[in-house]
């Protein structure tokens, strides 16, 4: 599974045998995706050295790696900053997410077994509990919903048996999720209803209908994020 939002917040530190650099990479990446490091923010190596407990040399390597992932922007001799966000990029990420996820969903519906179905149901149950709380105005952090949203969508495509596709999708999903975390806004009953319907269509192996719904669901999420007015 990808290193997406709060679901794996401190997982990096717990992974046996990981280097200091790998732990720092995962923490910095997570802080960018979760919006703790804001778009355009200057990434000052002296400060980061204390926060992430890594050397300046290691941090430079990490930031160059994140620049390749387009989560960080390299500014030549001026150092690094967190990558900006734009409405145009959000739309492009949404289109790419839809392309990858709908393909993986078809494959999973074709190949998934009973354990896969159970995983989809379990992931949706956890998500639905959080959604009911948010709809009922309970003090549930939106970031917890984002984590469970990832868990559900990942569960639906987890039987695709295409590791390269899964890794690419996870990377795009994280960049898409970054916009959700910056907006910190839940779409409400429409999103919850779509998740429940998607669960049913997946379990019933209705691939065409599931893919069509997933496309609408992603587009609805894009328009909701843009409606917050946070992105130009």
UniProtKB/TrEMBL annotation:
Domain HTH gntR-type: 18-85
Protein name stated in the entry: GntR family transcriptional regulator
GO function terms (MF aspect): DNA binding; DNA-binding transcription factor activity
Classification via SUPFAM superfamilies: GntR ligand-binding domain-like, Winged helix' DNA-binding domain
Classification lineage: Bacteria, Pseudomonadati, Pseudomonadota, Alphaproteobacteria, Rhodobacterales
Species for this entry: Pseudooceanicola atlanticus
InterPro entries per the UniProt record, alphabetical: GntR_C, TF_FadR/GntR_C, Tscrpt_reg_HTH_GntR, WH-like_DNA-bd_sf, WH_DNA-bd_sf
Assigned keywords, A-Z: DNA-binding, Transcription, Transcription regulation
């Amino acid at each position: 599974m990808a290193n997406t939002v709060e679901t794996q917040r401190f997982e990096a530190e717990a992974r046996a045998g990981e280097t200091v650099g790998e732990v720092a990479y995962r923490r910095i990446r997570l802080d960018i995706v979760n919006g703790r490091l804001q778009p355009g923010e200057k990434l000052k190596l002296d400060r980061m050295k204390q926060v992430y407990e890594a050397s300046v040399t290691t941090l430079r390597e990490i930031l160059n790696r994140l620049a390749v992932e387009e989560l960080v922007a390299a500014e030549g001799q001026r150092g690094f900053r967190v990558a900006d966000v734009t409405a145009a990029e959000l739309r492009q990420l949404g289109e790419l997410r839809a392309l990858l996820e709908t393909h993986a969903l078809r494959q999973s519906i074709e190949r998934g077994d009973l354990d896969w179905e159970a995983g989809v149901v379990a992931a949706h149950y956890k998500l639905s509990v959080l959604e009911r709380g948010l709809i009922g105005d309970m003090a549930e952090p939106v970031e917890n919903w984002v984590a469970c949203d990832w868990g559900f969508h990942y569960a639906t495509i987890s039987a695709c048996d295409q590791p390269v596709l899964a890794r690419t999708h996870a990377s795009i999903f994280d960049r898409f999720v970054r916009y959700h975390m910056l907006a910190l806004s839940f779409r409400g009953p429409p999103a919850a209803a779509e998740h429940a319907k998607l669960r049913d269509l997946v379990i019933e192996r209705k691939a065409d209908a599931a893919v069509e719904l997933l496309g609408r669901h992603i587009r609805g999420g894009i328009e909701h994020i843009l409606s917050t007015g946070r992105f130009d």
